[in-house]
Give the backbone structure.
Amino acid sequence: MISRKFLDSLHSTDPNRLSTMRGYYEILNFLNLGYELGNCLEVGCGSIYSPSFNLFSTHPQEDILWRCKTYTGIDISLEAAKNAKLNSYRVLQASGSNLPFKNLSFNTSIAVETLSQCGSEATKVVKELGRVTLNEIYILTTHRDAGIKYKGKGRVFQDNDELTIIAHSDPEIGSFSYFTEESLINLLNKQGFRILEQIIFKNDNTQEKIFIAASRI
């Protein structure tokens, strides 16, 4: 797992670095089709994009926040939780692999660029998302192929059909975790979800990002 020290350092200096707009835009596309967020949980929410933290006046994460009936964010970084609370968002410091909520507590769960930072806990995070989610799950994460390409200098200490884990070359940072689309879909299917959409984003012929939208069967 990526170290808390490393995450806190990022969120204290540049709270925008750990998220990507791409996943949020894909979620907004689903909302435009008539899907609703209802009571929404975001795992690995970061510091929350808002004018006080962002160079831009708007960000798709903000659009999503405004369209929730209720919003709850969690992040393992204390700095991220502190920064989000400054903007009056409900954010808790907690681990995605052990969510402090009852079964089916949320209509929708979101994890944008979160799973790749969870190391060996990544599979547990997906299972926890399934446990607490009543309707839809939206996930954007780095594809295994990109992980091998960009983090290949680190030590690979798990590589199988379910999950690939690569230790960063700097041991102070920790380890990264990567799925393929097949392994992530299979894991969601086992949690009782069917796939509404899967998109693979490529960069220079490398499968870089996986976007999955899934709905409870």
Q: What stands out?
A: The longest strand covers residues 193-203.
